[in-house]
């Protein structure tokens, strides 16, 4: 028992140190990026049909997700990758979606010169689907092609189940949906950043307390917690920098992959309730508008404006009020998600997955 306790303390210490290191490093990278973006006029374009209070944000530096992604990649490569090859998957997804989002951000920023306004919605969707499908295959397939996840998931009140090949299309859709959901949430200062910090912290706790223990995935989660927290330093209202598609798409997809690897993806709608509700509001608004236009010849709306945070702004809430209240809901949701994971966990003997030799990639199932 003493040996086990010492091991657990050591693993948590490593994760928390990585979180602290990510926070400090991201602060330094962030200071440089804000200066760089201002100097090169990498400013955000604002919707003219949105709340008028957002007009003042015009020209605020964007693509701030680069400070989070770069920090997490460096620290994971140095301290959480060697002999822990399962971390290659979330790292690859983080980088892939960051590149996709970064290219889209850049095309949008240079629209006045190139006459293009980023990827078309359809083209962007299929690019995301392709990357997500490859990630899902990597999770499902046996070594040496994947992590031998085999479609396993934890179902509250039921226990572990295996959904087989159905895991691949389901996982693909989850990755794309959460990635877009985070991107839609990133419309107010600190809103996406705070909820990402909470969500990664929740999964960090769940992976630490899981059996078998997913200590490497836990360390990865807390690295993201530290980086996202430091981003909030510059994204606090009034924001000095925005996350951009580069950060929102990458972090949303990575959150989904973490949930899938931990086998606790059924709890993702709970832990990430703000992301889900924001995306749902857009789906409902768009669907209802199109249906009423066909039915009555005139499009009607459920919300004053979608995503949902704009609806509350137009009801009279200030940006700070919307953000703080959404974050409070996200905090409670994260605690509920952790509680559900603990209450309905399947009892088993603690086992450290990362103690298996690196040649046996099957050790990486949950990590």
Quick description:
This protein is mostly helical and 367 residues long. The protein has 13 helices and 2 strands. The longest helix is centred in the first third of the chain and has 38 residues, at 2-39.
What would you say this structure looks like, in words?
It is a single chain. The protein has 367 residues and is mostly helical. It has one domain (2-364). Helices cover 64% and strands 2% of the residues. The protein is built from 13 helices and two strands. It has a two-stranded antiparallel ribbon. Helix 1 runs parallel beside helix 8. The protein is globular and about 55 Å long. It starts with a helix and ends in a 24-residue tail after the last helix.
């Amino acid at each position: 028992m003493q040996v086990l306790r010492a091991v657990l303390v050591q693993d948590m210490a490593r994760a928390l140190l990585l979180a602290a290191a990510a926070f400090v490093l991201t602060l330094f990278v962030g200071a440089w990026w804000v200066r760089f973006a201002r100097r090169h006029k990498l400013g955000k374009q604002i919707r003219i049909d949105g709340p008028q209070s957002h007009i003042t944000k015009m020209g605020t530096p964007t693509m701030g997700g680069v400070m989070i992604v770069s920090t997490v990649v460096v620290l994971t490569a140095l301290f959480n990758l060697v002999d822990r090859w399962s971390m290659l998957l979330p790292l690859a997804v983080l980088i892939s979606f960051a590149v996709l989002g970064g290219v889209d951000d850049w095309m949008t920023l240079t629209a006045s010169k190139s006459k293009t306004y980023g990827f078309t919605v359809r083209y962007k969707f299929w690019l995301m689907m392709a990357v997500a499908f490859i990630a899902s295959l990597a999770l499902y397939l046996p070594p040496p092609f994947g992590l031998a996840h085999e479609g396993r998931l934890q179902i509250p009140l039921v226990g572990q189940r295996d959904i087989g090949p159905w895991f691949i299309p389901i996982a693909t859709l989850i990755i794309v949906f959460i990635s877009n959901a985070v991107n839609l949430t990133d419309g107010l200062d600190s809103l996406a950043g705070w909820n990402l910090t909470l969500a990664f912290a929740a999964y960090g706790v769940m992976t630490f307390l899981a059996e078998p223990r997913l200590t490497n995935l836990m360390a990865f989660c807390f690295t993201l917690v530290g980086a996202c927290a430091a981003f909030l330093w510059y994204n606090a209202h009034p924001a000095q920098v925005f996350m951009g598609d580069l950060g929102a798409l990458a972090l949303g997809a990575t959150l989904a992959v973490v949930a899938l690897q931990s086998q606790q993806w059924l709890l993702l709608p709970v832990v990430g309730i703000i992301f889900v509700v924001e995306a749902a509001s857009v789906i409902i608004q768009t669907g209802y508008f199109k249906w009423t236009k066909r039915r009555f010849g005139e499009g009607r709306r459920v919300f004053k404006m979608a995503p949902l945070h704009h609806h509350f702004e137009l009801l009279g809430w200030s940006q700070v009020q919307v953000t703080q209240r959404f974050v409070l809901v996200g905090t409670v949701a994260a605690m509920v998600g952790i509680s559900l994971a603990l209450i309905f966990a399947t009892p088993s003997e603690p086992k450290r997955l990362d103690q298996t030799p690196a040649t046996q990639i099957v050790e990486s199932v949950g990590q």
